[in-house]
Amino acid sequence: MAVTDTRSFEALTLGLGGEIFAIDANSVHEILDVVPQTEVPGASPLVGHLINVRGKVVPLADLRIRFGMDCTPPTIDTRIVVVEILLDEEPTVVGLLADKVHEVTSIAGASIEDTPDIGMRWNPDLIKGIGKRGDDFIVIPDIVRIFTTH
């Protein structure tokens, strides 16, 4: 997202490691309570488990791993956000663990800034931009790059 982009977009905001992240609400299929997970031996820690979503096997990703955050046990607020993204031009359904799901909100394009070159604790290649809503900063991750950049 460029700073000059004035379009707003609908975003699902979620909590992750004490930060607020926003993902495109149009990519969200559903939000689930925590369900049983099957560990995949030898798999990447990012996507180390599978879940059953309405009879389909879906990889479960813990974005905290990609952002170098501490992995904490699930709480009563933990949710799984099931999204569909394009990976290698193929629609792919993935579950994303979230510490908490907040709301669907509109984020104005004019309020989104490029990722600062310094002061970030995350790899800027994984972030599309930083949005502002009131006094809060909202991190807009590049979900596709999270899964395609190593």
Query: Which sheet architecture does the biggest sheet show?
Result: 6 strands, mixed
Give the DSSP E fraction (strand runs of 2 or more residues). over 45%
pLDDT below 50 for ≥5 consecutive residues: which ranges? none
Oligomer: single chain
Q: Which structural class best describes the helix and strand composition?
A: mainly beta
N to C succession of SSEs: EEEEEEHEEEEEEH
Quick one: how many beta strands?
12
Rg measurement, Å = 15 Å
Give the helix proportion (percent range). under 10%
> Strands of the largest sheet, in order across it?
3-7-8-6-5-4
Overall outline: globular
Mean pLDDT: 87
Helical stretch tally: 2
Instruction: Give the N-to-C terminal Cα separation.
Output: 21 Å
Describe what is shown at a glance.
This protein has 2 helices and 12 strands; from the N terminus they run E-E-E-E-E-E-H-E-E-E-E-E-E-H. It is mainly beta and 150 residues long.
Protein described:
It is a single chain. The protein is built from two helices and twelve strands; from the N terminus they run E-E-E-E-E-E-H-E-E-E-E-E-E-H. By secondary structure, the chain is mainly β. A six-stranded mixed beta sheet has the order 3-7-8-6-5-4. The protein has a three-stranded antiparallel beta sheet with strand order 2-1-9, with no helix packed on it. The chain starts with 8 loop residues before the first strand and ends with a helix.
Chain-wise SSE layout:
Elements: E1 9-16, E2 19-24, E3 28-33, E4 38-39, E5 49-53, E6 56-61, H1 63-66, E7 79-87, E8 90-98, E9 100-107, E10 112-113, E11 127-133, E12 136-141, H2 143-148
Parallel strand pairs: 6-8
Antiparallel strand pairs: 1-2, 1-9, 3-7, 4-5, 5-6, 7-8, 10-11, 11-12
